[in-house]
Amino acid sequence: MKYFLLSVLLAGIHMLPSRAQTLTAKRDYTFGNGVISEQVLRNYLSRAISLTEFCTGEGFYTDNDYLYKEDDIRMLQHTGAKFIGRATYSWASEYRFQDPRFWQAITSNTRRMHAYDPELIFQSCIFEIITEQVNQVSIPDWVFQAFNEPVVQRNFKYDAMCNPEGILVNHWDKGASVPDIAQPEAQKWFYFLARKYIDAGIEAIHFGQVELMAMTDRNVHYRNWAAVLQRTRDYARSHARRKMVLCDAHVPGGGLSIEGKLLLDFHSFPLRPKELPDQAGQQAVLEKNYLDAIYGKSQGGITPSGWQCEHLPYLAEFDNFGVSATPGKANIASHFIWGYDEITWYSLQPEAYRNEWLKYAWNWVRHTDPDGYVQMPGRRVTVTGKPGKGHNYRVNIKSASCPLGYGQENTIRQIWAQAQ
Fold first, then answer.
1. Below-50 pLDDT ranges, the chain
2. What span is annotated as the signal peptide, if there is one (predicted)?
3. Could you write out the DSSP letters of every residue in 191-254?
């Protein structure tokens, strides 16, 4: 504990202005017409929070999340969040996309929230997974038209999205593969989802593990990803709320670029905490060059908005990806932390340590790499759950309105009130 308290103090001495300075300063959240300035982008990233499936409608939630929506809204207002990450998505379960209620719910929820704060950005995700359920989803006419192809009546084809040589086919499970972005059918799938999300009021899209899906695209300098992103941006420029959609992805290689031009508006990656096996409890720290951590490695170049940077700003988030075969045991050569994914490890810690570690992580990232920002954990899926807590970590203050809250809400408010 003392190690982290000292780290927080040292990292924060030169980074944090006074509370009065921050609260009286006006932050700019203005963007549009396909362009966002570096400062406005940083303003959003510095107020980013994950809130899994916040915009997804009743009947599509899991673990009774819908019961606590009103308290989630209160929490967002109380903390001052502006960028709401992972607000809607589907990991597999593509049957959702054929149901009009899924899209109607997203539209209704984004409109409701924008009525009280039009500056909020809600993010959707299009992940690195397809299952055979995509065969149930019909292709709208406008998809064929966007690709200058004859309009026909058919559904998407799972097999046509997979790599023809079998690379990463059945990677997740039988009938669940990583789509190959070089395949025209996969590009149609991504465009279909991106356009549907934009029409529902979404202004940011996380494209998952883009390098994993670039299994052959990297051989042609990412021209297929460039085409997918360009189509998405072209549509947003005419139809999005503020004529723009922010595109990001997890980039273990530091980012995608073509001849110095960056393909993404900002980068993202897991926090990658490193265990401290010699310390009492399941303590962890952040460290440059630990495994594939992004700190200091975000690529620079000319952004899609036209400004140049040495390193593109990025978000570091608490990731969820499962549990190891040895939960509770340290292995610094593994992506698991104490045998768990990042958000599960975090949720299992005592409340005081969660508060302390969140302050430490924010200050360490801002001090170590000023281009990075911690995306706060609002709600993320955990793999173990806790008695009486369900299978989601929730940052909310525990109350009658949210009895499953873990209680870091005031910590986030404090960090943001003091941060640049």
1. 1-24
2. 1-20
3. HHHHHHHHHTT--EEEEEEHHHH-TTGGGGTTHHHHHHHHHHHHHHHHHSTTS--EEEEE-TTS
Question: Can you tell me whether residue 155 is helix, strand or coil?
Answer: strand
Question: How high is the pLDDT of residue 384?
Answer: 76
Which of 358, 310, 366, 296 is closest to 17 using CA atoms? 366
C-alpha to C-alpha distance for 356 and 370, rounded to whole angstroms: 21
Q: Tokens for 104, please give them.
A: 């109607």
Sequence-ordered list of residues with C-beta below 8 angstroms from that of 417, at least 6 positions apart, any chain: 19, 22, 23, 80
User: How far apart (Å, rounded) are the C-alpha atoms in residues 325 and 280?
Assistant: 22
91 contact partners, CB below 8 Å, separation of at least 6:
127, 129
Q: Which residues pair with 49 in a beta bridge?
A: 84, 376
CA distance 406 to 343: 12
pLDDT digits (tens, 9 = 90+) for 22-61: 333 589 999 999 999 999 999 999 999 999 999 987 666 6
189 sits in which H/E element: helix 184-199
Strand bridging mode 121-125 / 204-209 = parallel
Exposed / middle / buried, residue 81 (Cβ in 10 Å: 0-12, 13-18, 19+): buried
Per-position DSSP letters for 341-401, written without gaps between them: -HHHHHHTS-HHHHHHHHHHHHHHHHHH-TTEEEEEEEEEEEEEEETTTEEEEE-SPPBTT
Tell me if 230 sits within 8 A of 237, measured CB to CB: no
* Contact call for residues 377 and 346 (beta carbons, < 8 A): yes
- The Cα 143–Cα 127 span in angstroms is 19
- Measure Cα distances from 385 to 63, 66, 342, 348, 409 in Å: 11, 18, 13, 8, 19
- Other beta carbons less than 10 A from residue 14's beta carbon: 7
How far is residue 111's CA from residue 201's CA, in Å, rounded to a whole number? 7
Distance CA 18, CA 411 (A): 16
Both tokens assigned to 372:
């990075």
CA angle 140, 145, 150 (to 5 degrees): 90
